[in-house]
Amino acid sequence: MRVLAAMSGGVDSAVAAARAVDAGYDVTGVHLALSANPQAYRTGARGCCTLEDSRDARRAADVLGIPFYVWDMAEEFREDVVEDFLAEYAAGRTPNPCLRCNEKIKFAAVLDRARALGFDAVVTGHHARLADGVLRRSVDHAKDQSYVLAVLRPDQLAGAVFPLGDSTKAQVRAEAAQRGLAVADKPDSHDICFIADGDTRGFLHRELGSEPGDIVDADTGEVLGSHDGAYAYTVGQRRGLNLTRPAPDGQPRYVLSITPVQNTVTVGRREALAVDTVTAERPVWTVPPPVGPFDCQVQLRAHGEVFDATVDYDAAGLTATLRAPASGVAPGQAIVAYRPDPAGDVVLGSATIAAAARAA
After folding, report:
1. Phi-psi sector, 144: left (phi>0), alpha (psi -120 to 50), beta
2. Is the pTM of this model over 0.90?
3. Catalytic residue among 48, 49, 98, 101
């Protein structure tokens, strides 16, 4: 089988490529150049968009003895990931760019190009398990990335290979060292790869400009402060609210909602964050969807808590009724449904959260 190994320059993708070679696949390495100006994205060993990362990926390919290429995906990445990220924040939502990157770049643009060139699949270093077309959590729950892969359709999963799902991160690093890969001790990437300094609020301000508005109390309607752009806030946020006067009861306030049309950020008491009904749009199923309402577990943010729920759906969207309330559920994030299984939780599908509420 001919496979294309997506090599970011990190330890996970390097070991994934090595395991693909060991499995007897005909492996070609490719590094995705995601920025027209690599220095404009994250520098050092914290991201996947730098010249250093490209060189690290090439050195790993040399050690493995596989062909290596760099593909310029900067235009597609800017349009499908960065612009989507900005549009979502401008609309008062909190997107997850890793979801969009997997959906639009790694398993759409890259997989389509790979298949056109005669490759059978794309290998990545994601920590998730895939067998017989079924996507499951990684054995290392602390590093599990099935949440950000739940946007993939069955035909895309059929063209994916995830060699690391049965290993912990510590095991991957130890294996990299044994293989003589220089990235064995390279730090994991953090934050958002295309925000060079890690300052998301500053990035949004530079890209979207200043849009002053009010921060109001949900209970009284009083103006408690002001903001330079509602996009700088997310549901559940407590710190950095820029309140110029305390709430009437003197208790801390949390962001409850963001209304772009009125350019208003509404804050309130912590208990007002509790929700038990989540509605979502644009569902994507990794397996044939269950018939009618079904019981499952749902995860509402990357590496977040798991909740027992009943999900009902149609072509337009889904509604999840949680057994216990969740807090700080932000529109724009994904809701991912899992089926508990002794062999490892099965990913059923995902959708983009549109709203969340507390039943009367």
Report:
1. beta
2. yes
3. 101
